[in-house]
Amino acid sequence: MTDHPPSAPSERMSDLGFKLMRAFMQVEDFVRPFIDKRVQIFGIKEGMTVVDYGCGPGRYTIRFSRLVGPLGIVYAVDIHPLAVATVRREMEKRRLSNVEPLLAAGYSSPVPDHVADVTCALDMFFAIREPAPFLAELWRITKQDGILVIDDGHQPRETTKRKLQEGGHRVIWQETRDHLKCRPR
Q1: Which of 170, 171, 179, 181 is most exposed, with minimal Cβ within 10 Å?
Q2: pLDDT in tens, 43-97
Q3: Per-residue model confidence as pLDDT tens digits over 135-170
């Protein structure tokens, strides 16, 4: 584990905000189910280790769990205790034994060093105020030949790219309208 400054209060939403976000996501997934199709292009395969960083209520975590299968593992990481509790309940309800929900403290998580084949930071990077220490944490947990999948969320692509440059260490390997994939330099 690394010592990074705790996240700014504005990076962690209120409990009410989390509950409203979860309700909105449930409605969106019912009306416009796109998550299953989206995760197919991330390169996640059976037996891999995947980190869903900023997992929120687990909408991607569940899909990643299915993709990695019983021989893989998914670390569902979030700074919000309600997110970790929600994922834990979902995993118990669905009897998914390959998911480990973990609470991050600011920019530091209990995920082991260089364990992830794929690390995903989806629909949350826009909230990161200090990209360099945040990305350093993602690089710490990702294997040397691993991939970081990140999307813009609620910010322009140029802002995402600027934040990635501030974090250094990796280069954009693949860019789609939906996301960026980064690899080591």
Answers
A1: 171
A2: 999 999 999 999 999 999 999 999 999 999 999 999 999 999 999 999 999 999 9
A3: 999 999 999 999 999 999 889 999 999 999 887 767
DSSP E strand boundaries for the chain: 49-53, 73-78, 99-103, 116-121, 142-150, 170-175, 180-184
pTM of the model: 0.83
Among candidates 149, 150, 69, which has minimal Cα distance to 117? 149
Report whether 110 contacts 102 (CB < 8 A).
yes
- How many of the other CB atoms lie within 10 Å of CB of 14? 11
Among 141, 23, 126, which residue's Cα sits nearest to residue 77? 141
Residue whose pair of structure tokens reads 């501030």 in the numeric block:
166
